[in-house]
Write a structure and sequence with these properties.
single chain; 8-stranded parallel beta barrel; 13 helices; globular
């Protein structure tokens, strides 16, 4: 119930203004967001690189309905990639892009062109792009743009949200040679008509999707902080004769950093999702909704404890 309320609040302008106006909020947000500027993002990436962690960097923002704003977001990614290039991260440093932030709801062709420009800039630095997945109404459009991008940039990845009923079939379609797929549980408030409801049902759906990806010929990117899901991934890797280099784990910036470092120390590729930018509110509220411990952390901080 609390999670559903927080997801609803993530789209509320009133709550946005209230939370953003609390003086201590910024200090709490810094746990989950690397900063507001490109330089702060670069500094965070450099620290993670030095800890033997890979990264995927997200310029925060979504639901752009203005062509100029979409272009500004695309330009922000180009500036970010240019700033990251001296770090020589190669494939260990990619970017994550929400198509809605580059005009998807305004014009699919516009979103594709912006995404293509970002993919080209990433490829020039030896890196790549993963398309974030948003609410269920955007899935077909996102996968359509993915197919077009992969004609020139076959390494382009995509996120699949396990809680959607359609996701097992999407995973089957995407589990091909070289296909990079980030599997997440899902972080949007979806109706029961399209998505599994409740933790147990979502966990079971995640395992079913994970099994499909691990049995396939693609490159699964297992986005989880759940030790059970990590253990299941390792069991499936053994079952399907996967090596430590043909899949990876992904975790969020600021969450379970000790587990990130332990997995990397054991030889796994661990990629940290690094968000930055001043449009942090929606992302922040979804992180609170995902885990009660995050809410407790926020409330303790607001209380000065």
């Amino acid at each position: 119930m609390l999670g559903q309320l927080l997801l609803a609040a993530s789209r509320s302008g009133v709550v946005r203004r209230t939370v953003s106006g609390v003086p201590l909020t910024k200090n709490v947000v810094e746990r989950f967001v690397a900063g507001e500027s490109v330089q702060e993002a670069r500094d965070a990436v450099e620290r993670l690189r030095d800890a033997n962690l890979a990264v995927t960097v997200d310029h925060l923002g979504e639901e752009t309905r203005d062509a100029r704003a979409a272009e500004a977001t695309a330009n922000a990614y180009l500036a970010l990639l240019e700033a990251l290039r001296p770090l020589e991260l190669g494939a260990r440093g990619e970017v994550s892009v929400k198509l809605s932030a580059v005009g998807q709801r305004l014009d699919g062709a516009m979103a594709f062109e912006h995404a293509r420009e970002i993919c080209a800039a990433a490829a020039a630095g030896g890196s790549t792009v993963t398309l974030d997945m948003e609410d269920h109404t955007t899935v077909d459009s996102t996968l359509g743009i993915l197919r077009k991008l992969r004609e020139d940039f076959p390494e382009t990845g995509v996120a699949i949200q396990a809680y959607l009923f359609r996701s097992e079939e999407d995973c089957r379609d995407l589990a091909a040679e070289g296909s990079r797929v980030r599997l997440v549980k899902g972080a949007y408030r979806e109706p029961a008509s399209v998505a599994h409801q409740g933790k147990v049902a979502v966990d079971k759906a995640y395992v079913r999707c994970l099994r499909i990806l691990m049995a396939g010929k693609g490159y699964p990117m297992v986005a989880t902080h759940d030790d059970r899901m990590i253990a299941i991934t390792e069991l499936l890797a053994d079952r399907y004769a996967r090596t430590i280099g043909d899949h990876e784990f992904q975790m969020l910036y600021g969450i379970r950093t000790d587990r990130q470092e332990a997995l990397a120390g054991a030889g796994h590729t661990v990629r940290v999702y690094v968000p930055y930018g001043d449009d942090w509110y929606g992302y922040f509220m979804r992180r609170l909704a995902e885990r009660p411990a995050n809410v407790a952390f926020f409330l303790r901080a607001l209380g000065g404890k």
